[in-house]
Design goal:
The protein is mostly helical. The chain has helices at 2-14, 26-30, 54-66, 71-74, 79-92, 109-124, 130-145, 151-160; strands spanning 16-19, 22-25, 33-34, 36-38, 50-51. It folds into 2 domains: 2-105, no CATH class; 109-160, no CATH class. The strands form 2 sheets. The protein has a 3-stranded antiparallel beta sheet with strand order 1-2-4. A two-stranded antiparallel sheet has the order 3-5. The termini are far apart.
Length: 161
C-alpha cells in the first residue's frame, strides 16, 4: 500500500514544473488552464485555477524554455491576462531574476489612442458589430489604467454606445 502512494506521488510530481517558489500543472497548461500551487501542493489564493488564452500559454512556455520574458507577445494580451501574468511572475519571486517590468507590457499610448479613434469611426459609420463594442471597452480600460481618461469618462462613452 505504501508503494502505491509513493508511485502516485511520483506521478503527481511529474505533472508539475517548478516556477520560482510555485509549481505549475503542465498537463492542465496544455489544455489552456493555469493551475499554480506552492511546492507543498497547497493552492495559491491569489492565483486560482484560470482558463487562459493560447497567447498566455505560449508566453509561459517561452518563460520555461528560455528564462526570458517575451514582452512583445505580452503586449497583445487582454488586460485581465496581463494581470494574471503580472501576479504570476511577481508572486513566484521570479521578477528580479527575469528583470521583469510590468510597464513593458503596456501598449504604446499613441497606438491605443489611434485604435480608439478608428473604432469610434466604425461606430459613427454605423457598424454595430458586438466585436467592435468589445474592442472599444478594452481600449477604454487601457486608457483608464494608463490614467489618460477617468473611469467616469470611460463609463460615459460606453453609455453613449
Amino acid at each position: 500500500m505504501v508503494k502505491f502512494t509513493d508511485s502516485k506521488l511520483k506521478l503527481e510530481q511529474n505533472k508539475y514544473s517548478e516556477f520560482g517558489k510555485f509549481i505549475i500543472n503542465m498537463a492542465l497548461l496544455d489544455q489552456n488552464i493555469l493551475l499554480v500551487k506552492y511546492k507543498s501542493y497547497a493552492p495559491v489564493p491569489t492565483l486560482k485555477r484560470t482558463q487562459i488564452s493560447d497567447e498566455l500559454k505560449d508566453i509561459i512556455y517561452y518563460l520555461f524554455d528560455t528564462g526570458e520574458m517575451d514582452y512583445q507577445s505580452g503586449q497583445k494580451l487582454k488586460e485581465s491576462e496581463k494581470g494574471v501574468l503580472d501576479r504570476l511572475i511577481i508572486k513566484s519571486g521570479l521578477n528580479l531574476q527575469l528583470k521583469y517590468k510590468s510597464s513593458k507590457l503596456d501598449d504604446d499610448i499613441e497606438a491605443i489612442i489611434e485604435e480608439f479613434e478608428i473604432l469610434k469611426g466604425e461606430i459613427i459609420a454605423g457598424n454595430d458589430n458586438p466585436k467592435i463594442v468589445e474592442d472599444i471597452k478594452n481600449v477604454l480600460i487601457k486608457l483608464v489604467r494608463l490614467k489618460k481618461i477617468t473611469k467616469e469618462t470611460a463609463d460615459s462613452i460606453l453609455q453613449d454606445l
